[in-house]
Amino acid sequence: LLLHGSVFHVTASPLPGGGAVVVLRDTTRFEAVERQQRDFVANVSHELRTPLTSIVGYVETVLDTEPLSPAANEFLETVLKNASRMHRLTEDLLMLAKVERGDVILDPLPISAELLVRDALRTVSGAPYAEDAKLEIGEATEQRVMADEHAVLQVLGNLLENALKYSSGMERIPHVVVSARSLEDSVQFSVRDFGPGIASEHLPRLFERFYRVEKARSREKGGTGLGLSIAKQLIEQHGGRIWVESELGKGSTFLFTLPLAS
Ligand code: ADP
């Protein structure tokens, strides 16, 4: 509720004998501080982007062209790994700031759900983390959904990458099944893995910015902790919903819906 430039959060609870209690909470300051924080993060990310691109570029060139001692080579590889990680982080932060501000203009058009699934699998199967993995399509409806192809492929790519990354290093080779099932007025996409699974206490917070179940493991796998929050924003902007079902030791299924094209 917006009143004379102030933002109020309103809740109403009915009373047993009739009537209701209405609580108005003035959240103007809270919203302003949150917006300032977001703008600050976006500005810093933006400022870091150019110098980081330059560091990554020069280090790559030196590694490719100069004869180096083994020690220098090793140190530069470490510089490159860390600078690339920072670069990824700034890119993700900028993307998140953009979707949260509504600056990512989506262009949803009718597209076959099966096509989206096939394209996502094709892109991911060439990536290094997909080597030796079993990637399968389960059920895949040809129903058309309203989707911004680029954005939905980004979401599917992120879910697939996570499924493969987090189930690698176990006894079995990573196995991922992607499906698209037709519901009444939407299509439900799912990415299922048979990896480590996620304990139930983490599930409600998984789509929050920077939330990671095991920080060290995620970092070691090149994660920034932002992929799922970006995915959530993109799916919700399509009018869809995204969630996760998981059981420790059994694997995880990430699901999202997209509205049917009429
Ligand atoms: P990250 O960049 O760390 O992968 P995400 O936002 O994509 O960030 O995911 C958040 C966290 O959720 C991850 O750090 C990981 O702990 C957990 N996670 C995501 N997908 C899976 C999965 N398929 N299996 C197990 N854990 C997962």
From TrEMBL:
The keyword Ligase belongs to this UniProt entry's keyword annotation: no
Quote the EC number: 2.7.13.3
| GO biological process entries | cellular response to phosphate starvation
Query: Known catalysed reaction(s)?
Result: ATP + protein L-histidine = ADP + protein N-phospho-L-histidine
Q: What domain of life is recorded for the organism? A: Bacteria
Q: Which GO terms describe its cellular component?
A: plasma membrane
Q: What class of enzyme is it?
A: transferase
Q: Does the keyword DNA damage apply?
A: no
Enumerate the spans annotated as Histidine kinase domain: 43-262
Q: Name one GO molecular function term.
A: phosphorelay sensor kinase activity
* Record key words, sorted: Kinase, Membrane, Phosphoprotein, Transferase, Transmembrane, Transmembrane helix, Two-component regulatory system
Please give the name of this protein. histidine kinase
Full-sequence range covered: 191 to 452 of 452
